[in-house]
Amino acid sequence: xxxxxxxxxxxxxxxxxxxxxxxxxxxxxxxxxxxxxxxxxxxxxxxxxxxxxxxxxxxxxxxxxxxxxxxxxxxxxxxxxxxxxxxxxxxxxxxxxxxxxxxxxxxxxxxxxxxxxxxxxxxxxxxxxxxxxxxxxxxxxxxxxxxxxxxxxxxxxxxxxxxxxxxxxxxxxxxxxxxxxxxxxxxxxxxxxxxxxxxxxxxxxxxxxxxxxxxxxxxxxxxxxxxxxxxxxxxxxxxxxxxxxxxxxxxxxxxxxxxxxxxxxxxxxxxxxxxxxxxxxxxxxxxxxxxxxxxxxxxxxxxxxxxxxxxxxxxxxxxxxxxxxxxxxxxxxxxxxxxxxxxxxxxxxxxxxxxxxxxxxxxxxxxxxxxxxxxxxxxxxxxxxxxxxxxxxxxxxxxxxxxxxxxxxxxxxxxxxxxxxxxxxxxxxxxxxxxxxxxxxxxxxxxxxxxx
Length: 452
Description:
This protein has 17 helices and 16 strands. It folds into three domains: about 70 residues; about 160 residues, Transferase(Phosphotransferase), domain 1; about 200 residues, Rossmann fold.
């Protein structure tokens, strides 16, 4: 048994790994509540609604109950989500709270870390977040919900989308006084924002970390009214598209239709040849080539630095109910680190991703030239993530997209060339095949990682 650091705070139980699988142990202190959760019908209703990960009980004795939950393909964190992902996670949390109240229970936790995405659908993963509801009690997780969901959503809407990254800095949620200091006056002209953020913040200053509902008696109807008020506010928040560097990448690409089609055929040929079980698409923009890969594989993770691009990919997946693709925010130059207690509570992105194949199209010049990263370091990045295969596109200096990068800076990149590329990558990868894109100097390579 290997307990995971992410669940050490909860006396009700903890998560552990065994033989590469994730399990949850439930401690005796939570036995009665867990039994009520199951027998009330709430568990089955949540599972049937697609709100909660299902589980099976694999061990039960006086010391513990062990459950084996549905195994997710990837664990993401809120600071890796686009606006609509956080919004959908917030609405799911509120819907679960309303449903819990119907069964005489309530959510004691409303952490954004309790939500994951599978096939671009939010799903709740913390089976131990429920407790019995008692008439007159406020929602104990109200403050946590406002800090984990409402504050970052409002900051993203009224200031800048990068505010979604604040949850990396504030692992326990954005303090409401911080949100108040950042939000413009027009945000507080909305009564619901004024109540849930400003007044809530003022109450926190008086009552330390308590919610301003904590000391009040709440009837069930009043509690439902609070939840519905939050739901109405969150539902109304729509994030307008901001101007970003890569949001319209495929609109202004230097590929003509013939070259684009040729590139697709090369990539599909390489994927079908390698037959990977899964794939990570780095710098994949709005997922054009991730979706192409889904013709041959069942599971794909798409990462990009651009919020508009991931927003677009996520909404596309939802619209068409796509199976096998999940999209997330990732800055490869400043990736998600290990954070939290002893820097182990939330794993770094490199501890969480890995695949049989990495797809890196039109990416290397952005890393090397835009960020001054030597080619040898780029090799280490791909070697770290892929278990076996790499499809990578080399974009030479004479390419118009590279020239755009060099227009605003001095060309100090003497080692950025085809020969250096081959030399550095050959140290860690076998070059299995390569094809030049039709009527372009770009070249796409299929590489296989050297066995240690």
